[in-house]
């Protein structure tokens, strides 16, 4: 069973919904989720916010958060997850912001901050994997979905 099929199993028939805010994964999370038949019943959509201006204007990420913590940060991932959940009205959301290629003054190539939001509040996770841009994007998306599935499962059992 794929991770997206696990998420489908957790959400199907519950009335609970999901959305995504992606930066470094460039829509890969959305792609994976929509490969599951019937995903339109629980997957509301996504915002692929590559530019800081889109993170700010569409998702509501504060410019101050970006300037203080950097575009690749726990704080930005959290605000992205919160923002897309607010925009779509979903029960749960997942976000990614990171460096699939290149590095910055804080993090090496292959770094992603993942955010999730839902009834249990916002959580973030730092994940690092570096095997080239395409492989990084694939692994970031899978890890984000694993983190999300664990979060949803926790919400449903507690």
Query: Which parts are unreliable, with pLDDT below 50 for 5 consecutive residues or more?
Result: none
Q: Supply the CATH class.
A: Alpha Beta
CATH homology superfamily: CinA-like
The helix/strand order is: HEHEHHHEEEH
Helix/strand-derived category reads: alpha/beta
Mean pLDDT across all amino acids? 97
Please give the CATH architecture: Alpha-Beta Complex
What is the count of β-strands?
Answer: 5
The main pleated sheet reads as:
5 strands, mixed
CATH fold group: Maf protein
Strand content: 15-25%
Summarize the amount of helix as a percent range.
40-55%
Radius of gyration in whole Å, from Cα? 14 Å
Task: Please tell me about this protein's structure.
It is a single chain. This protein has 158 residues and is α/β, with parallel strands linked by helices. The chain has a single domain (17-157), classed as Maf protein (Alpha-Beta Complex). Helix content is 44%, strand content 20%. It contains 6 helices and 5 strands. The protein has helices at residues 3-11, 28-34, 52-57, 63-69, 74-88, 133-157, and strands at 18-22, 43-48, 92-99, 111-117, 123-128. It has a 5-stranded mixed sheet with strand order 2-1-3-4-5, sandwiched between helices. Strand 1 (18-22), helix 2 and strand 2 (43-48) form a beta-alpha-beta unit. Helix 1 runs parallel beside helix 6 (133-157). The mean pLDDT is 97.
